[in-house]
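Researcher: I'd like a structural prediction for the single chain below. Treat it as a standalone chain; there are no partners to consider.
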Amino acid sequence: MESSIHKRKPLSPEQQIRERDAYICQQCGAINSRHVHHINYDKKDCRPLNLITLCHACNNKVNKDRGAWTWRFVMAKG
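Model: Treating it as a single chain, here is the predicted structure.
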């Protein structure tokens, strides 16, 4: 009898961030959050330290005053 080995498909970078953050919005704490936000707004910069999970409402907020939000997120990470 052959044994079958089930290989898990590698997670996308976005999925890794959602799981790291436990699907919790890093701004307001909402559960089941799905948006992955680039802190420095550079879509090519997908380093884990530049990515956070946000809920839909917070994702909309952070796209209005980018400079202030970038500063806020950087300071929060210490």
